[in-house]
Design goal:
The complex is a heterodimer of chains A (170) and B (191). By secondary structure, chain A is an alpha/beta fold. In chain A, 38% of the residues lie in helices and 21% in strands. Chain B is globular. The chains are: A alpha/beta (170), B alpha+beta (191). Chains A and B meet through helix 4 of A and helix 5 and strand 9 of B.
Chain lengths: 170, 191
């Protein structure tokens, strides 16, 4: 018995040591950020309702910057809508920020590709500048304490299982 | 024969100087000249002044801005890191030439000066900025980046040599990519 225990102990230790690494397996194009505090995000939505990111502390937030002129954004938006439908009552708060476009442009675009989504309007682009995305589209995952923990690089197929499982696991 | 085959198999993947393919036929996968290999994909898509002014006009840019835009040569670049290491986009390491002479991009400072002169609204400045190719980016595995490279409007054709360092510490070797004789398209004269 003792011999068997000593035989398996190193294997068990190795498995235990590798757990944090396995837990950090991320879907393609998602990178870990240093946990820096998320910049302020106070904007009105397309319906004119005010929104402040800090009021949703306590939940993970999916903060997505986009514009209708950007090809990858147009391709990604329906995927985000399908992701939201699949996640259902998940605690993840979806925050879509349109960068520097008019209400007419956004209304026309979303009416065709994702009519159920209501984005925030960063009409002069100043909030987007503060967040310093690597480009458009760009997605940040903000933890319940208001710190950025992950960033998605470019457009992603959010309705795919690897992304859904990752988001459900937050 | 076997030696030559072995030589080619060994040499070709190691050759870091790559030239652009021409995407002109219906079978071509991309809408412009491109280079694609195991490390990256890079595509150039030159636009006519009319295409660019129409794009920005549709985003509410004023006439004075459109006039300035219409004088330049806009080329949209798409770059995608297909490798599992960091690829460094640093346009300072790129060489642009026309007729054998070095040329420069119309840079952010020049645009800012023009926009200040015509008092361009913040929303337009923001949109214009996000449509430009970043000058520096540590492209992560699987990360794409895109945006415009802008040249003076009197340029008819140009060559681009783009060098990319690789690896976290930029010691992973250099990718050296060349595009030759790329055309800045102009509108056809109306009949």
């Amino acid at each position: 018995m003792k011999s068997m225990f000593s035989h398996y102990l190193p294997v068990c230790l190795l498995l235990l040591l590798s757990l944090p690494t396995l837990a950090e397996t991320l879907p393609p194009g998602v990178i870990r950020i240093d946990g820096t505090s998320a910049p302020a995000l106070k904007l009105n939505d397309l319906d004119g309702e005010p929104y402040d990111l800090t009021t949703t502390n306590g939940h993970w937030r999916f903060v997505h910057f986009w514009a209708s002129w950007c090809g990858p954004c147009r391709k990604e938006m329906p995927s985000i809508e399908r992701m939201i439908a699949t996640l259902g009552d998940n605690e993840l708060e979806i925050v879509l920020v349109n960068t520097s476009e008019t209400e007419d442009d956004v209304f026309t675009f979303l009416g065709i590709v994702a009519p159920d989504l209501v984005p925030l309007m960063d009409s002069d682009g100043k909030v987007t500048e503060m967040w310093q995305p690597r480009g458009l589209p760009s997605t940040y995952l903000v933890d319940p304490d208001g710190n950025i923990q992950y960033q998605a690089l470019g457009g992603r197929e959010w309705e795919k299982p690897e992304y859904l499982e990752f988001l459900q696991g937050l | 024969m076997r030696f030559i085959r072995q030589y080619l198999i060994t040499l070709l993947p190691a050759c870091s100087l790559l030239f652009a393919g021409q995407a002109v036929g219906v079978d071509q996968p991309y809408p412009g000249p491109f280079v694609e290999n195991d490390d990256l994909l890079m595509i150039l898509i030159p636009h006519t002044p009319e295409q660019m002014t129409a794009f920005y006009e549709a985003r509410g840019f004023p006439k004075a801005a459109l006039q300035q835009i219409g004088k330049q040569c806009f080329v949209t670049a798409h770059i995608e890191n297909k490798s599992q290491r960091i690829i460094w986009l640093e346009t300072a390491n790129w060489d642009l030439a026309s007729n054998g002479k070095a040329i420069q991009r119309v840079d952010k400072q020049q645009w800012t000066a023009w926009w200040d002169k015509i008092n361009l609204p913040d929303a337009n400045r923001s949109t214009f900025g996000w449509t430009q190719l970043p000058t520096v980016r540590d492209l992560q595995p699987d990360e794409p980046v895109g945006g415009n490279i802008i040249l003076a409007g009197n340029i008819k054709r140009f060559d681009l040599r783009a060098r990319f360092m690789t690896g976290q510490d930029k010691r992973g070797g250099m990718l050296d990519i060349q595009f030759r004789n790329i055309k800045c398209p102009k509108e056809e004269a109306a009949p």
